[in-house]
Amino acid sequence: MFKFFDKFKKDKVEDLENEVKDEIKEVEKDEVIEKEDFFTKLKKGLSKTRQGVTDKIDSILKSYGKIDDDLFDELEEILITADVGVNTTMEIIDNIKERAKENKIKEANDIRILLKEEIEKTLKSVEESKLDRKLNVKTSPAIILVVGVNGAGKTTTIGKMAWNLKEEGKKVLIAAGDTFRAAAIEQLEEWANRANVDLIAHQEGSDPAAVIYDGIQAAKARESDVLICDTAGRLHNKKNLMNELNKIFRVVEREYPEASKEVLLVVDATTGQNAILQAKVFKEACDITGIVLTKLDGTAKGGVVIALQSELNVPVKLIGVGEGIDDLQPFDAEKFIEALIG
Ligand SMILES: Nc1nc2c(ncn2[C@@H]2O[C@H](COP(=O)(O)OP(=O)(O)OP(=O)(O)O)[C@@H](O)[C@H]2O)c(=O)[nH]1
Ligand SMILES: [Mg+2]
Fold it and tell me: What does the alpha-carbon distance between residue 52 and residue 301 come to, in Å, rounded to a whole number?
């Protein structure tokens, strides 16, 4: 009788152990799929730029066979069309020419590797100290101020970022600092619900700095790890924008000096060279610590990330490759080139 019971117990334990092992295998499989998905998503997100850049480069290199000046002119045109920017493009092409001469490269096809290396060099051209593209949220508390012109993708990015940080195990709070219209607050509320994080909001038309003030007090009381603040992009002129942002910054300095600070500028990749101009204006108005480049999935102008990096000396930290909550990725220069040029 006891023997039977012991065997029954042993079988049960073995069954349970096998079940756990199976579950672990499933989880490991999911992780592999997730990792693949990340890169696949990036590749898919960059497909329009790839069609505009890589495919054209491929056909030109094939059609030329040997290197000559016309080939370089055509390469130059492709990069400029992809919004790599005139100055940055010239620099890249000049370097390739020089290296091709030095290394006595004659075959057009051998240019590809030089091009890849030169783009990578440009993407990594920000100061060494700024090459860390991780968000400054390692120590708690942290505050992230999100700025940018209207329609750039600030609110959407905040939703995605809140979700990502929550997935990492952080306690996240959002402050609705864009008080320009009721719809903006509702939109943020929707994202906060989706990401399952709390939101601090006032009524439409109220003082944004007061919302941020309340957000900070709430973050302290609730012991939040990260407070993410939305701001309005719909300001009539540069002076207005600077005044409002400065007021917010003063509140943060005064009320939350212990928090690590990140000021993220959100720019829309589909606006191409305009994104660079915007970034320059904001850089004058405030101390931007990172750039988020959104809507890369909707444009053939993905080359703008290269120009942004070479002209601004501010690291691109995140990229948006779709409208879904999981469509925000950390920017990785090597993976970006791999997805773009292969
Ligand atoms: N395809 C695509 N669409 C995006 C991405 N990021 C944002 N969007 C879309 O861009 C539009 C504007 O985004 P918002 O987040 O509302 O932009 P905002 O900067 O908050 O705009 P305002 O509040 O008007 O200043 C929305 O329709 C978003 O879905 C992205 O990475 N890819
Ligand atoms: Mg918004």
Answer: 8
